Amino acid sequence: MMNLNLKFTRIKYFFVELLTYSSWNLFGNFAAISKQQGNNILLNIFFGSTLNATFGVMLQVQYAVSSFVHNFQTAVNPQIYKNYAQNNYCKVEKLILQSSRFSFFLLLILISPIIFNINFILLWWLKNPPEYSNIFVTLILINLLIESISYPLITAALATGRIRNYQIVIGTILFLNLPISYVFF
User: Fold this and answer.
1) Residue 4, Cα to own-chain centre: how many angstroms?
2) Which of 34-48, 106-120, 159-173 has the highest mean pLDDT?
3) pLDDT, tens digit, for every residue of 127-154?
4) DSSP string, the chain
5) Which of 52, 55, 69, 158 could form a disulfide with 44 if both were Cys (CB 3.0 to 4.6 A apart)?
6) For a pLDDT cut of 70, what percent of the chain falls above it?
């Protein structure tokens, strides 16, 4: 039988570092949720439930397609973290470039048939799709294609542990989406 003796030590530096990292990550996640849910509320206020239903269809397609690329990226992330921790920056850069390309082309292969047959797919799936859903879905798929390039870069930024500036820039842009959308609506 193995005897495990655990000793808990408190190192203030690590607590502060973890709390800071978690706080900035929480800020970024809160900004992303605020952008999405805020846009949903704004669409409902300005355009009613019909366009809001279209937005809901778009989100379902976005989640289904993006989960495919996120699952691939989940397999690559540990290698990026590991190589960064080992100060193997050449390997990190190589992994970022390769996984960005692979994610982009994998997603391109997946979404091309969807974009070219979007009207047929929406009619088959929903029978009576909401108005403009084909435009919304096409635009979100193109957006996902562009974003797929950045997923490994985000992982590399998170691997450094210094995410304050990254989260400030991205979070601010995401938060600004709401007032800008309000002005345009």
Assistant:
1) 41
2) 106-120
3) 888 888 899 899 999 999 998 998 898 8
4) -----------HHHHHHHHHHHHHHHHHHHHHHHHHHHHHHHHHHHHHHHHHHHHHHHHHHHHHHHHHHHHHHHHHHHHHHHHHHTT-HHHHHHHHHHHHHHHHHHHHHHHHHHHHTHHHHHHHHHSSPPTTHHHHHHHHHHHHHHHTTTHHHHHHHHHHS--HHHHHHHHHHHHHHHHHHHHH-
5) 52
6) 96
